[in-house]
Amino acid sequence: MEFTNALSIATPELIVVIGAMVLLLVGAYGGDKARPAISLLSGLVLIGAAVASATGPLGQAFMGAFVNDSLAVFAKVAIYLASAVAILLGHGWMIRNNQARFEYPILILLAAAGMSMMASAGDLISLYVGIELQSLALYVLAAFNRDDAKGSEAGLKYFVLGALSSGLLLYGASLIYGFAGSMAFDDIAAAAAGAHGTSLIFGLVFLLCGLAFKISAAPFHMWTPDVYEGAPTPAVAFFAAAPKLAALVLIARTLGEGFHVIEDQWRQVILALAVLSFCVGAFGGLMQKNIQRLLAYSSIANMGYALLAIAAGTTVGVKAMLVFMVLYMVDVTGFFACLLALSRGRRPITQISDLAGLKQDRPGTAIVLTMLSLSVLGMPPFAGFWAKVYVFGAAIQGGLWIFAALGLAASVVAAFYYLRLIKLMWFDPSPGLTDPAPRDAQWVAYAAAAFSFPLVLFALGWLDGFAGTAARALGLG
């Protein structure tokens, strides 16, 4: 009976994993001819998993190692939907670039399974299993274009540095286990409230260093610009969205359930990561000439804002992080969809200067990119503005007003490189006409821009309610 209940709680993960295994067999026998069907079925598997997650039972399974609460449900639905969009964007891009292989959607499915496990981790073992399942798929996606030197370099750097971060994480987990005598977050929380509270900080610092790598928070961001530049663009669009949400939810759950009693100690580490991240992201982006490297530094800065919300240590802070990440995921996915829709002479646009004069032959795409740029920099009334209102509001409410002011200053600095993009598109001469836009990427970009404004005004109340319910699952103050 308990096993049956556990399977019902883990139904979304079973759908994704079984779907990936079945489609892998289909691809092995059918080859690349089966790729269109595999892409379509992979998207349907993810949508089915999202529905199963939203409608399935809540509870714990496998002796508390797997937790399916409202926080996990919120994260899983967002992860599955973002993964489905990544499959859609990758399908068309790989056909156009003669790289179409059936493994791409299957790797997305396996990464989604790992991220889902991260969102439901109830102890240190399930935490590590989820991270590694996600990471191994992402390493392969980064080096998916094996004939490209930059792609191979990106995959190798990601793998080597990822192995280092996994070592830090495992060392931290072993220290925590040694002091607490258990892997379960509930038992760790009991140990933190007792005599071992100070000792656990040693293991927690290493654990946070490993997790910070997964969200490319400074100073563990060194892989991000190279991977963003060298990996296939649709894979980067995926890296920038769902994996970041999964890792941040995992950080919030680990700190909220296992270490909330020693909040004053770990808050200092989170604040240091946050300040370094939005400073490195803001100032590092000023020197970039490659668009995807620029977006890498933008991602680093935005992870700093999300960590600032977690540092508040309250339900309001976790809710702010969830709202921020959903709105950021929409914006960044739309931004990458625009890049996928742009090319000149069948060559993708990679340099910032390539956007010059875009309004002359692609006014629609120029408007969309302008809206998304204004949203990411936090200009009202776009989605990014409301996202930062949530984050800075949670930080101020938690007494972190100095750090909120630093984040706001960094956001002003980062506004320069987004305004530079807008200036190039609307006021500089064009180097030549762009190629016809693929419809899949174009429609994703239009949908993201429409959501950034005005649809966000209608969705914000609904998103606030669901994020609030999800955040209360951690039982913080």
Describe the structure in your own words:
This protein is an all-alpha fold. It has helices at residues 2-9, 11-30, 35-55, 70-96, 103-119, 124-142, 149-180, 185-193, 197-214, 224-230, 233-239, 242-258, 263-284, 291-311, 315-340, 358-361, 363-377, 383-397, 401-427, 439-472, and strands at residues 59-61, 66-68, 343-344, 347-348. The strands form two sheets. It has a two-stranded antiparallel sheet. Strands 3-4 form a two-stranded antiparallel ribbon.
Can you give the mean pLDDT? Answer: 90
Based on DSSP secondary structure assignment, what is the total number of beta strands?
4
| N-C termini distance | 35 Å
Structural class: mainly alpha
Q: Helix and strand string, N-terminal first?
A: HHHEEHHHHHHHHHHHHEEHHHHH
Residues in helix, %: over 70%
Strand percent estimate:
under 5%
Spatial strand order of the main sheet: 1-2
Number of contiguous helices: 20
In the predicted model, the low-confidence regions spanning at least 5 consecutive residues are none
Q: How can the largest sheet be summarized?
A: 2 strands, antiparallel
Give the C-alpha Rg.
21 Å
- The oligomeric state is single chain
Shape: globular
Secondary-structure map with pairings?
Layout: H1 2-9, H2 11-30, H3 35-55, E1 59-61, E2 66-68, H4 70-96, H5 103-119, H6 124-142, H7 149-180, H8 185-193, H9 197-214, H10 224-230, H11 233-239, H12 242-258, H13 263-284, H14 291-311, H15 315-340, E3 343-344, E4 347-348, H16 358-361, H17 363-377, H18 383-397, H19 401-427, H20 439-472
Helix pairs in contact: 2-3, 2-5, 3-4, 3-5, 4-5, 4-11, 4-12, 4-15, 4-20, 5-6, 5-12, 6-7, 7-8, 7-9, 7-10, 9-12, 9-13, 10-14, 11-15, 12-14, 12-15, 13-14, 13-19, 14-15, 14-18, 14-19, 15-17, 15-18, 15-20, 17-19, 17-20, 18-19
